[in-house]
Amino acid sequence: MSTGSAPSICVALVTFNRKHLLVECIDALLQQTHPVDRIFVIDNGSTDGTADLLRERGYLQNDRITLAREETNSGGAGGFHRGLQLGQQAGFDWIWLMDDDAEPAPDALQQALAASANTSAIAIANFKVSAEGVPQDNHMRLENGVAASTLAGTASPVPLRFSSFVGLLIRSAVIPQVGLPRAEFFLNGDDTEYCMRLRKAGPILLAPASIIRHKEAARSGYAERSFLGVRHARAPFRAFAFRYFELRNTTIIHRIEHGTLSALIFALRRVVALSAAILAFRDDRPLQRIRLVVKAHADAFRGNFDNGFPFRLLRQTSA
């Protein structure tokens, strides 16, 4: 779908119940100095009136915006799976993955494409900063282990080991080789696992001059507790329940990278350490927390993607 020498670009923008952040992201995408050809908004079954707001504000009358409404929430992993699928099927050269709490700088796409010029890179990552402008090292890890924040203000692209899906430009031609993100992961770790596959197909580069402001929601309800002089911010149970996805998926990833025996040792150590911390810091609902930790690791080895479990657990405890 290239026009002349310019590559065609679409955006796979995943959203769930954050309609006001979503429209801020769409506005930023529409104002790019290098225009995007299409924005696929993958609405993961939102219940906050997302589609109504987009319609009322005229976004759905814009021929560059396509709303793909999913009936159920398939998580970020399912949303990006669907978005890449749509972009590839439509024939776009590059697919720009975007979360709804992201706001790319006006020249973010232009800088990313400049970083891709004359390289064999199969993906270009944007430089993520917080709402306050602080680099987010946990969303981008360099090949050499140096913190990505040290590159702030530089221009030259560098090899990257991992980028979150908060701004990752992927060459569509590589998708038949590497496949799509694992939708069954639901949440957390899908980007890590996908970057592992991408890197086998070619280099991922970080474009330090391509800035995305990532407006992650502030953590609420966390309690400061201490044990033997060590202070730690402890998650409320409603937040801890969703660690099921992280614990399960990171165990699966460890097994892929290092084998079953190493993953088993890793899992046992983490179950013991997390269970001890739950008891030591006197977290609320300790038995339910420990049950979740054990189940997440067991499900990783069984290949059981029980994505409804955290939601069932929260309903049971609230009842």
UniProtKB/TrEMBL annotation:
<feature type="domain" description="Glycosyltransferase 2-like">
    <location>
        <begin position="10"/>
        <end position="142"/>
    </location>
</feature>
<dbReference type="InterPro" id="IPR001173">
    <property type="entry name" value="Glyco_trans_2-like"/>
</dbReference>
<protein>
    <submittedName>
        <fullName>Glycosyltransferase family 2 protein</fullName>
    </submittedName>
</protein>
<keyword id="KW-0808">Transferase</keyword>
<dbReference type="InterPro" id="IPR029044">
    <property type="entry name" value="Nucleotide-diphossugar_trans"/>
</dbReference>
<keyword id="KW-0328">Glycosyltransferase</keyword>
<comment type="similarity">
    <text>Belongs to the glycosyltransferase 2 family.</text>
</comment>
<dbReference type="Pfam" id="PF00535">
    <property type="entry name" value="Glycos_transf_2"/>
</dbReference>
